[in-house]
Design brief:
single chain, 3 domains, four-stranded antiparallel β-sheet, two-stranded antiparallel sheet, 5 helices, 39% helix, elongated
Amino acid sequence: MDESDNMPSGAHDRRNGLSRPQRPAAGRRFVHRHTALVRAAHWINVVCLLVLLMSGLQIFNAHPALYWGEVSDFSGPAFAITAQKVKDGQSRGITVVAGRQLDTTGVLGFSAGNARAFPAWATLPSWQSLAEGRLWHFAFAWVFVINGFVYFLHGLLSRHFWRDLVPSRRDLGRIGHTA
């Protein structure tokens, strides 16, 4: 049993390539995991990826089909989400994957009385607007890139990458035991 066995889950010893626990005044154990900048960068990434996904779905709604190969064959997409009228005159949501049609009414293609690939609650903005979807997408793509640059710069200057992410010789020596 080594010293790290006495530490709470998530507490780590710097000699083992991990963080050393710090003790606050009240006798409770405080474990330092990441700096505020690293935490903020990760949460900014979460927000950026969510906005990029939702605005990307809005962009896809403008032309809800994907093609295989170098040339777009508009009559036979590899993947498409559409709304089609069926024999009784009602609209149905149809998703086409490699030529196979799936009825996805209420989820994709046709939901809440609207004919659109992805429903309004899943897109940003919620109304049909390619231009605004692209504005959201490109704005948050830049936020994502700038956030990544700040994180990378912080990681280099603070030696976070070397200290916390690159495995030590001891870690590499024990890789067979941990795998």
